[in-house]
TrEMBL record:
Chain ranges passing through the membrane: 51-69, 81-101, 107-128
Annotated source species: Luteimonas vadosa
Location of the protein in the cell: Membrane
Record-linked SUPFAM superfamilies: MAPEG domain-like (SSF161084)
PANTHER family named in the record: BLR7753 PROTEIN, INNER MEMBRANE PROTEIN
Taxon lineage: Bacteria, Pseudomonadati, Pseudomonadota, Gammaproteobacteria, Lysobacterales
Domain of life: Bacteria
Protein name: MAPEG family protein
Length: 129
């Protein structure tokens, strides 16, 4: 089960990796970072910031899914597998987002969402017995 918990930690930190990429550069203004990001015309910075925001949106359901599955008594190996798949897909999501490969971004986003749904469904089915 510790693998899934490490995946939750990685997923929690992933948004910060994308925003660090968005803010990288010599002109970054830390006095008003949100306004600075909003003014960026560099498409890579904009997409990295969007990946940052999307990673935050994806985190809560994933963390809830892991905890639900664990509390319901779902097999730990299955939870670990789904958690690792989620993290891998979310890393790819950010890479594809920044690289502007929209079809692959959408496909891996869907795959990560399916991992979350699988965690929650497994929890519900286990509790229902």
């Amino acid at each position: 089960m510790s693998t899934a918990y490490w995946c939750v930690l990685i997923a929690a930190l992933l948004p910060y990796a994308w925003v660090a990429y968005a803010k990288a550069g010599p002109r970054y203004d830390n006095r008003n970072p949100r306004a600075w990001l909003a003014r960026q015309e560099n498409p890579r910075s904009q997409r990295a910031n969007n990946a940052h925001l999307n990673a935050f949106e994806a985190f809560a359901p994933f963390a809830a899914g892991v905890l639900m599955a664990q509390l319901a008594g779902v097999d730990a190996a299955r939870i670990d597998l789904l958690a690792m798949a989620f993290v891998g897909l979310r890393v790819l999501h950010g890479v594809f987002y920044i690289a502007n490969i929209h079809l692959m971004r959408s496909l891996v986003w869907s795959g990560a969402l399916l991992c979350v749904v699988a965690l929650m469904v497994q929890a519900a089915m286990t509790v229902a017995g």
